[in-house]
Amino acid sequence: MRDPEKLKEEMDERNRKILDVAFELFVDKKIEAVSMGDIARAADVGRATLFRYYPSKLELVIAVCADQWKRYLDGLDERRPISSVHDIPAIDRLRFTMDSYIDMYQNHKALLKYNDNFNYYVTHEGKNNDQLVDFHSSLYSVDTRLHMMYEKAKVDRTIRTDIPEAEFMRVTVHSMMTACAHYAEGFIWGSDDNKDYTDELIMIKEMIIDYATKGIK
Predict the structure, then answer these.
(1) C-alpha gyration radius of the chain
(2) Would you state the pLDDT for residue 140?
(3) Do residues 82 and 145 lie in contact, with contact meaning Cβ atoms separated by under 8 Å?
(4) H or E stretch covering 103
(5) pLDDT in the model for residue 6
(6) Which residues are in coiled coils (predicted)?
(7) First-last CA distance in the chain
(8) Is-contact 150 165, C-beta < 8 A?
(9) C-alpha span between 11 and 176 (Å, rounded)
(10) What is the pLDDT of residue 77?
(11) What would the mean pLDDT of 96-125 be, rounded to a whole number?
(12) Whose C-alpha in 31, 46, 105, 217 is 20 to 30 A from the C-alpha of 91?
């Protein structure tokens, strides 16, 4: 009889390979163009094995996104724990968040590209909230940080809290991430291939900061 711990280790390694290979293919060819058969062949596993891990392509797409975000955010958490939110003004936390997206544009374009394609794909595939539980769990740390930032702003008054929290996040943090993703994809009018558009993203960041601090005295 096989050692259960050894068997689990092998299954985890196989799953790790499936997730990594799927991510590479989805970024390179777009999610819509990649079949489960393509992933099975690239990961060197049988189709039946792949479907035992992920019964549908949508489930695999969501698992890949959750895995990639968790790994990226775990790295951020190691460098700056959630408890550090209390140590700096809300405006500094907002700037740090904006700068982290610019860093993603510079150093993690693949994740930005995948996330943009992911949002489009799951919207058109008829996903349900139960399927996104693990994905939303992977974003726990960033959602928590942003909520804590907004709550702190009510006290230190360094950024606006005169509009609802969800609206504030849409027009600041999420707008910045969308801009970085579009620049990473090259979906910007008049842009040149392989040109570094960091300076333009910094300008966008400063415009968003101006909005976030409008009326603050």
Answers:
(1) 20
(2) 76
(3) yes
(4) helix 90-107
(5) 79
(6) none
(7) 71
(8) yes
(9) 38
(10) 73
(11) 90
(12) 105
